[in-house]
Amino acid sequence: MVEMSERKHIDYDPDRPLQEQLAQFADAKVEILRDPNWVGFMRVAMGVMVRDPETARASLAEAKKQDDYLVLWLRAAHKDGRLTIPDAKLASEVFWSAVGGAFFWPVVMGTAPRGKARIKLRDEIVRGFVEAYGG
User: Which of 14, 27, 90, 117 is most buried, with most CB under 10 Å away?
Assistant: First the structure.
């Protein structure tokens, strides 16, 4: 399986629809959730993090570093005038919080949306994000 951070390395393309590009970011994050070994690891890791807040903070900080590609993408879309994003790091956090809430936690808890329901939810997150930050 390709490293998750590599999947999320998506360069801004001024000729492609914003929604299509943002959907790629969401899909890259969701793709790792299809690996049962990774999901099992995350379930065990959650137990460790609940008991050790310092480990949780360090893990979250490392995970945020992997989201830097979206920050770069958002800055490029802002510079191009297609989105209005004065704080790309904050906007990135908003996007990943929506994706994580919709897909990460449900997978870890065993209740993830599948098939058309997953795509519909992803598209709604992307649509809402573009609408909120529209240029």
Answer: 27
Burial of 74 (0-12, 13-18, 19+ CB in 10 A): buried
With residues binned 3-state (H G I as helix, E B as strand, rest as coil), the percentages for the chain, rounded to 5, are 75, 0, 20
The model scores a pTM over 0.70: yes
The residues near 8 (Cβ < 8 Å, ≥ 6 apart) are: 25, 28, 29, 66, 67, 69, 70
> What's the angle, vertex CA 23, arms to CA 26 and CA 83, rounded to 5?
110
Could you read off the pLDDT of 48-101 as tens digits, one per residue?
Answer: 666 777 766 676 666 655 558 999 999 999 999 999 999 999 999 999 999 988
Helix, strand, or coil (residue 25): helix
Residues 6 or more apart whose CB falls under 8 angstroms from that of 106 comprise 112, 113
